[in-house]
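Input record (Table S2, row 167):
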Amino acid sequence: MNKSIMSLVILGAISTPAIAEMNSHDHMSSEMGMEHNAMSMPSVSAVGMPANGAQPDKVIPVVLSDDMTIQFKSSTPIKPGDIVQFVIMNKGKQSHEFSIGSPKEQADYRAMLSSMPNHHKTDGSSVVVKPGQAQRMLWHFHGTTTVEFDCNMSGHYGKGMTKTLVL
Ligand SMILES: [Cu+2]
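Output record (copper (II) ion complex):
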């Protein structure tokens, strides 16, 4: 009897740290997993979200130029609920950005950039396009229907590189 109690105690002494270690490992990996998900999870904007992998309803070519214009080369209107594939071409000699958000989100973003100029968003709502290059952005429009498309490269918004649509 004593012996079996003894062995239970020993078993307990051995297995408890092993379980504790396993638990802490599980805990750690799930925390890391969460962190990873949080980092790779697309931002949810007031005007929608990235739609990577989805089938687009519409394709809209966009031209960014050094004359500070954002031109949509398609007369197809964007409607609430649309998944739009933007194909963004930079025809200029300087980098431009194509960013989607509500007017408030864009203003907050520019305020952030004014203190951290190189922190352009990479969450699927914005893309910096180098001169002569093209990038794609797939966006699902839902929510607020006043959508602001901006270039938030330093000074460009102030020079008129902005476009507002009411879907
Ligand atoms: Cu620009």
